[in-house]
Amino acid sequence: MKRYLSILSLSLLVLSGAAALLARPLPPQDAAAILAGVDARSGGALAPKDVQSAMVMTIVQGNSTKVREIRAWTRNNADKDDDRLMKFVAPADVRDVGFLVLGDGAMYIYLPEFHRTRRIASSNKKDAFMSSDFSYDDLGTGEFAKSYDPNLKEEKPDAWVLELKRKPGSDKTYPRIVMTVDKAKGIPAKTELYDESGRLWKTAEQASTSIKGFWVPTLITMTDHKKNSSTKLELKDVKVDQGVGDELFTERNLVRRIQG
User: Fold this and answer.
1) Cβ contacts of 204 within 8 Å, gap of 6 or more
2) Is there a domain that residue 257 lies in?
3) How far lies 98's CA from each of 128, 149, 156, 249, in Å?
4) CB 3.0 to 4.6 Å from 178: which of 125, 183, 192, 251, for a disulfide?
5) Contact 119, 99 (CB under 8 A)
6) 17-72: per-residue pLDDT in tens?
7) Which helix (H) or strand (E) holds 36?
């Protein structure tokens, strides 16, 4: 199971670590090793087999505040990237909208108003997801190390600061990322995302909770500095290792109505 969280995903999502790492800081490492640890805790060998949660998305744009309720499932795949399903349950105007990410990188969105499922083209993955400050790519999956070369920019008493530069040929949205990795947890606490001109575009800040020996992000705040807006994703009723099956992550299931 791989994770490009972007932030989340960066991220949707971004999980972490083994119980043995909860109580003590990680030892000194080079940039590549630190990033490999982030990937492992976000969706690799040190992450849960699956995660499910209820989400509250709060979008603040000027004087406008919109609140969305979502149910989400993520499954760890040993030989490919993660699978993820997000289904909106409230309010009524977005109920049953669905977003599906498959381990091969394919993304689909279902719009019940039009009874239509649409595949998200690579050129559109940078677009805003449901009018929020997260893009489709931010909520996708995949390892950072596949798409970025890391350098250790700074070491603080409690954190490493990595500078990630997009590899040639990668189609990821952000050419440069500055990631602050919590030493005690081994996962990102803050991620700064830059645009093609080198300007700071977005900042993702993440708070995590220990659940059954795994560090699970339970609050992610994405701020868009260009739009002067922000979106919070709060994860509630988080459950790990529930045995989520293959049948959940299909286009057929994407269009099904959520019960309750």
Assistant:
1) 6, 7, 8, 10, 138, 188, 190, 191, 193, 220, 221, 222, 223
2) no
3) 15, 33, 41, 11
4) 192
5) no
6) 443 334 344 555 699 999 999 999 988 888 999 999 999 999 999 999 999 999 99
7) helix 31-43
User: Distance (Å, rounded) from C-alpha 240 to C-alpha 247?
Assistant: 18
CATH number of the domain bearing residue 235: 2.50.20.10
Phi-psi region of 138 (alpha: psi -120 to 50; beta: other; left: phi over 0): alpha
Write down how long the chain is: 260
| Cis geometry, peptide bond prior to residue 91 (ω within 30 degrees of 0) | yes
Answer whether 43's CB lies under 8 Å from 82's CB. yes
- In a domain, residue 251? The reply is no
The amino acid that residue 86 corresponds to is M
Residue 50 and residue 76 in contact, taking contact as beta carbons nearer than 8 Å: yes
- Domain residues for the domain of 235 are 19-240
Tens of pLDDT along 179-216?
999 999 999 999 999 999 999 999 999 999 999 999 99
Per-residue tokens: 156:
């603080």
Virtual CA dihedral for 94, 70, 78, 81, nearest 10 degrees?
40
Backbone angles phi, psi at 199, to 5 degrees: -85, 140
Q: Within 10 Å of residue 116's Cβ, how many Cβ atoms?
A: 10
Tally the domains of the chain: 1
